[in-house]
């Protein structure tokens, strides 16, 4: 099990047995994804070019906002998941950087890069599963119970983790087209975990997911949720929109219901699946994610000009 580089010099984790984990890739060339992008997201060469220029024009008019107008990959990660709805993509970009301006001191400054939360990856709290679901969705698992050491990992770190992982997922054009499914595992949830949460943490994290995140979040799956989880959920529930709530599935320990939502071949046996891939070592995932620090530092340089803020 090790980090390797492909012919494009993009890093990936070789898990062994033919399984890999990767984040970064160029545009897809497989015909089924080209057809899906056209049918579901209105992606054609002509519409892509037209939408990119329209979005650039809107962003040029946002005088106080600095973003990389010539970086097609940056613009596409907002346009593509939103089916090339240019005003919607523009609003998403504006909300993203307005939140940075509003909450930068507590939730942004120096936090949104993998090296800042390296201890989370090292602990094994996060897993990117190597296989996509049948519809092409990526799958990410976050363990918010036994593997969350609250003496080392704050709720600020957890909020940063969500942002970092979603940004990482958006590096892959296939995730932009197909979306992602997230599994939250609450096995071992305790009062020390619940005490970390607050209405402000809930509001900030959910505002970002619902207004700023361009990712197609196809579904959220809650597993191993005990009665104590209900206490935690009451903190977050007031900030959850109906649209997001409709995507949430509560399985507890009924993994047969989970495998009705996600193909068993993609899930490890611990979740009722048949995936025989070796589990990625936490420290190796930390090494891998930290390779992208420069990407996050570049993204952090963009935003509204504070000196001219209203």
TrEMBL record:
Q: Which Pfam families match?
A: CRAL_TRIO
A GO cellular component term found in this entry reads: membrane
Cross-referenced PROSITE patterns:
CRAL_TRIO
List where this protein forms a coiled coil: none
- GO MF assignments: phosphatidylinositol bisphosphate binding
Q: Which InterPro entries match?
A: CRAL-TRIO_dom, CRAL-TRIO_dom_sf, CRAL/TRIO_N_dom, CRAL/TRIO_N_dom_sf
Task: Tell me where on the tree of life, at the top rank, the source sits.
Answer: Eukaryota
PANTHER family in the record, alphabetically? Answer: ALPHA-TOCOPHEROL TRANSFER PROTEIN-RELATED, HL01515P
The entry's protein name is: CRAL-TRIO domain-containing protein
Q: Which organism is it from?
A: Anopheles stephensi
């Amino acid at each position: 099990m090790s980090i390797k580089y492909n012919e494009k010099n993009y890093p990936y984790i070789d898990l062994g047995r033919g399984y890999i984990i990767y984040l970064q890739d160029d545009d897809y060339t497989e015909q089924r994804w080209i057809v899906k992008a056209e049918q579901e997201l209105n992606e054609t060469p002509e519409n892509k070019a037209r939408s990119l220029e329209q979005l650039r024009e809107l962003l040029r008019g946002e005088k106080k906002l600095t973003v990389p107008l010539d970086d097609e990959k940056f613009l596409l990660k907002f346009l593509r998941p939103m089916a090339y709805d240019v005003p919607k993509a523009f609003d998403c970009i504006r909300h993203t950087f307005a939140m940075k301006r509003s909450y930068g001191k507590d939730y942004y400054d120096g936090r949104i890069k993998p090296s800042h939360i390296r201890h989370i990856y090292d602990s094994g709290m996060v897993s990117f599963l190597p296989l996509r679901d049948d519809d092409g969705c990526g799958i990410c698992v976050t363990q918010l119970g036994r593997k969350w050491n609250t003496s080392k990992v704050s709720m600020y770190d957890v909020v940063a983790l969500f942002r970092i992982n979603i940004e990482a997922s958006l590096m892959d054009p296939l995730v932009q087209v197909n979306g992602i499914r997230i599994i939250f595992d609450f096995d071992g949830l305790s009062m020390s975990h619940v005490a970390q949460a607050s209405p402000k943490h809930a509001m900030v994290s959910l505002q970002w997911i619902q207004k700023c995140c361009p990712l197609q979040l196809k579904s959220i799956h809650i597993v191993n949720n005990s009665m104590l989880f209900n206490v935690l959920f009451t903190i977050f529930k007031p900030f959850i929109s109906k649209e997001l709530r409709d995507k949430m599935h509560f399985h507890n320990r009924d993994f047969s219901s989970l495998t009705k939502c996600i193909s068993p071949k993609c899930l490890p046996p611990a979740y009722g699946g048949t995936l025989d891939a070796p589990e990625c070592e936490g420290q190796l995932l930390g090494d891998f994610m930290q390779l992208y620090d420069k990407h996050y530092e570049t993204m952090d340089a963009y935003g509204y000009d504070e000196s001219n803020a209203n």
